[in-house]
Write a structure and sequence with these properties.
Blueprint (H helix, E strand, L loop, with lengths): L1 H7 L14 E10 L2 E11 L4 E5 L6 H8 L7 E9 L2 E2 L5 H7 L4 E4 L3 H4 L6 H13 L4 H13 L5 H4 L9 H14 L4 E5 L7 H18 L2 E5 L3 H7 L2 E6 L2 E7 H6 L4 H8 L49 E4 L2 E3 L2 H5 L15
Parallel strand pairs: 3-8, 3-9, 6-7, 7-8
Antiparallel strand pairs: 1-2, 1-4, 4-5, 9-10, 10-12, 11-12
């Protein structure tokens, strides 16, 4: 009654505050021996969100998350801010990071052969995650590990518990890595090319599994991939990176329907069409510049077919020309381009 009376008298109740992001990265830079490879990364991640990160090799996709989790070598200098539920992670004590990594934030690494310890049995490695983050012990470790192995489609799960990494194929080791990441029941799962070593059928199963777990548990998913079809099927929002910077970010459907940045347009134009008439692919000319010798102004300008004179003089900011979309392109602001493409993602269905 009180609320109704308030409305009748013209009182306007304040809107509920927007939920705080689960993870926030602000102004993060990374230098290796004085060479800057990340140039001020800003991004947010909401609870339960699926965020895709795409770009050519060397664009800084993996380095962003290795830096956020404190996994870069001592030769790296990291600055900026990484906050998980409002608490700063950069510069945090090693003991605190050990509790966060594998627990609240887990990462599936791109190369399982370098991420798994070759001299320890698979069971001992996944058992360490279960014991450290959930207090599982004794025979319960084997039972929970078998459940996780079955979940990710690892054949003969009971026997794999006692195997060494070299006794498994590359695809099987990748599934072990995914099981280890899920063992901690993380709030954030960073998946760096998680299906590279898997065939198309298993790839679809793993992506469906990650999507199901995300929706059922509220886990946020960060998917780093070169496969634009995988990203389009899995993610709500996409970030495009180039030479250590974010050049475009938008909802996934908007990115694929009308990319704003010429680099994003180039990535999509290089995809083969699976519907309609065949046509010659349009590659992105040139090479990604060396971080020790970046061009002045926009780093993509030397490869950009739409560059203006000003593009070679000024570094474009990541601007918001419309709600929910950001693009770091002066030429796109002057003369927006439209590009509609259809991707064949039937192999992921």
């Amino acid at each position: 009654m009180g609320n109704l009376a308030g409305c009748a008298t013209g009182y306007v109740f304040p809107a509920a505050p927007a939920p705080q992001p689960l993870l926030v990265i602000e102004g993060m830079t990374v230098d290796f021996n004085g060479v800057r490879v990340l140039r001020g990364i800003d991004l947010t991640l909401a609870r339960g969100e699926a965020l895709g990160i795409v770009g050519e090799s060397g664009s800084g996709k993996s380095v962003t998350w290795l830096a956020a989790l404190g996994l870069l070598p001592r030769s790296a200098t990291v600055s900026g801010s990484v906050r998980l539920d409002g608490e700063e992670m950069l510069g945090a004590a090693a003991s605190r990071l050990d509790r966060i990594r594998g627990g609240r934030v887990a990462m599936i690494f791109q190369d399982p052969s370098s991420a798994l310890n070759p001299v320890l049995r698979i069971g001992r490695q996944i058992g360490e995650v279960l014991a450290r983050h959930h207090g599982v012990s004794g025979s319960n470790i084997r039972a929970e590990a078998k459940r996780l192995f079955d979940l990710v489609g690892l054949p003969d799960a009971a026997r794999r518990f006692d195997a060494y990494p070299h006794e498994l194929s590359g695809g099987q080791n990748q599934r072990v890595m995914i099981a280890m990441a899920l063992a901690g029941k993380p709030d954030v799962l960073v998946a760096d090319e998680p299906t590279t070593a898997l065939d198309a059928t298993i790839q679809a199963q793993i992506l469906d599994l990650l999507t199901t777990i995300r929706r059922e548990t509220g886990m946020a998913l960060v998917l780093i991939s070169h496969d634009l079809g995988v990203v389009s099927e899995t993610c709500d929002r996409i970030i495009v990176m180039y030479t250590g910077s974010v050049v475009e970010t938008a909802p996934a459907d908007a990115i694929f329907a009308s990319p704003r940045h010429p680099y994003t347009q180039g990535l999509l134009a290089a995809l083969p069409p699976f519907e309609g008439a065949l046509h010659r692919l349009v590659p992105i000319e040139g090479q990604v510049p060396d971080p020790t010798n970046l061009p002045p102004g926009c780093a993509f300008a030397p490869r950009c077919p739409k560059r203006l004179a000003v593009c070679e003089e000024a570094v474009p900011p990541l601007a918001q020309p419309e709600n929910g979309r950001f693009s770091a392109c002066i030429a796109a602001t002057v003369q927006p381009a439209r590009l509609s493409l259809k991707l064949n993602t039937s192999v992921l269905a």
